[in-house]
Amino acid sequence: MTTTFETQRAALADVVAIPVTPFAEDGSVDPAGYRALLRRLLDAGITTLTPNGNTGEFYALTPEERRTVTELTLEETGDGSSVLVGVGHDVPTAVASARHARDLGARMVMVHQPVHPYVSQSGWVDYHRAIAEAVPDLGVVPYIRNAQLTGARLAELADSCPNVIGVKYAVPDAAKFAAFARDAGLERFVWVAGLAEPYAPSYFSAGATGFTSGLVNVAPSVSLDMIGALRSGDYTTAMKVWEQIRRFEELRGANGSANNVTVVKEALASLGLCRREVRPPSRLLPEDERAEVAAIAAGWSV
After folding, report:
1. Which InterPro entries match (predicted)?
2. Do residues 293 and 251 touch, judged by C-beta distance below 8 A?
3. Predicted pLDDT of residue 4
């Protein structure tokens, strides 16, 4: 019987939350703190989670820590169809992580962009094909940050791997996204705006039906307000939400997104929900920016 992945596709057409990974005082992953953050998201109405995403400091976690984060997420949610587990690095590592997630009940994986200085377009297809073919029963979502990649290459991948069901598109160019999605097949995939709320209105206007979010860790209601407005085609309201989050996201995106995770954790720390510590190559915020982030977070209905 052919797998249709309809449940997984529906889960992608939503706020796709990227939980932070809280650290304990000794620097290790804090399981209790992580569970509490997940429960807060779930209780607020967030249903789709990506453990081991970039906001979760994927590249700063050890293999064992990544497995722990996956296990904690699936235990807390109890519904693998709404968990999109981040996998990556070399092909054997990505495959092992995907199989580990599948064995725990996950039904989708997101494949991080290949971290290699030399990525050919055909090599990109080969990399993702090797992972997708190893887990044909899982929905696979490539995370695309490569502006050189063409939509035709994604279509080529999906021709041989029908379990490639969605795309997290994170190239900061709405016109390029619109063309890429149509070249690949607009209706063929679920298109997730991978640059979160700041890009969601423009990407939705071009065909996206979901967006990722790190801000959702801090203010789930704000992200839900955005998806609600976009689903109804109310761009006036969506842009009011955009204005509400603008400064917070500007702080995250400054200097090549150097403080992308740091700002989120600082906001959580100001609310007493998480320690502020991040791992290198991220860093803590200076005191003046800490105060600004705290003031923004205090102003939201959280």
Report:
1. Aldolase_TIM, DapA-like
2. yes
3. 83
The 8-class DSSP code of residue 248 comes to: H
Contact 267, 248 (CB under 8 A): yes
pLDDT of residue 2: 55
Model pTM? 0.96
Strand pairing of 48-49 and 84-87? Answer: unpaired
Cα 16 to Cα 188: distance, rounded to the nearest angstrom? 19
DSSP 68-82: HHHHHHHHHH--GGG
CA within 13 Å, CB half, 62: 7
> From edge to edge, which strands make up the β-sheet containing 84-87?
48-49, 15-17, 210-213, 190-193, 166-169, 139-144, 108-111, 84-87
Question: Which of 141, 10, 38, 17 shows the shortest CA–CA distance to 88?
Answer: 141
Q: What 3-state DSSP class applies to 153?
A: helix
Distances (CA, A) of 167 to 61, 109, 113, 164, 292: 24, 11, 12, 8, 34
Q: Name the nearest CA neighbour of 87 among 51, 133, 121.
A: 51
pLDDT at 302: 54
Percent of the chain residues topping a pLDDT of 90: 95
What number of CA atoms fall less than 13 Å from residue 39's CA on the CB side?
A: 10
Which pLDDT does position 80 carry in this prediction? 80
pLDDT less than 70: residues of the chain: 1-2, 301-302
Residue 3: per-residue pLDDT: 73
Residue by residue, DSSP assigns 99-127 as HHHHHTT--EEEEPPP--S---HHHHHHH
Other Cβ atoms closer than 10 A to 172: 13
Q: How far apart are CA 23 and CA 284, in angstroms?
A: 13
